[in-house]
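Notes for week 9. Today we move from apo structures to complexes. The key idea is that a small molecule is not decoration. When we ask for a structure prediction with S-adenosylmethionine present, the ligand SMILES becomes part of the input, just like the chain. The input block below holds both the sequence and the ligand string. Read it once before you look at the output, and try to guess where the molecule might sit.
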Amino acid sequence: MQDKVAFVGFYESNHISPVSQDIVDLNKHFQRRESLFRSLGLLPAFIAGKSVLEFGPGSGHNALYMASLKPGRYELVDGNPKGVQETRERLAAYSDSQVEVHQSLFEEFQTDAQFDLVWAEGCLPHQSEPLPLLDHISLFVARGGDMWSPQPMEFPTSLKLCVVCSGIVFLLPLETFISRRNN
Ligand SMILES: C[S@@+](CC[C@H](N)C(=O)[O-])C[C@H]1O[C@@H](n2cnc3c(N)ncnc32)[C@H](O)[C@@H]1O
């Protein structure tokens, strides 16, 4: 485990996941997720049949919504074994779609595939080098695809903040996006 992601090592050695949500009322949970997607300009119907790569699903609560939108391929990456296990268990309900949860540090994740949507929600706090990390994960965006990384409001950053909406700050590291889209 690299020093720069020591907090992921902390989760692993203590067998914990930092994420817990009350999703007993799944309809309400899905409504909240839909509101987030729409406020980003991301139509839920866009996801059907598309390929999605998600970094840092935590324990998979929010991933349930993404899976419910029926992406054609859905891969997820998290470095915390407990979170990976809980995400796999939650997503087992969607075994009809192509879902794969990888246990890997973001920095070490490699695949030849590229994805229509790369999603990395709440993954930047505590990262010692958020911009190189965003640059790495943007490598997996397919031509014409998109990457979104919504972060909690309190996340301090020198990145360019573009939109503040519903308590969530949407970060656009413009250089990264522009260079990736022009490649
Ligand atoms: C705050 S949680 C966000 C969970 C979920 N996306 C959400 O919004 O509820 C961040 C997740 O990213 C994972 N993570 C953070 N940095 C990582 C890294 N460098 N490599 C692998 N996993 C990492 C953590 O294990 C954790 O599950």
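Strands lie at 51-55, 73-78, 98-103, 115-119, 141-148, 150-152, 161-165, 168-171.
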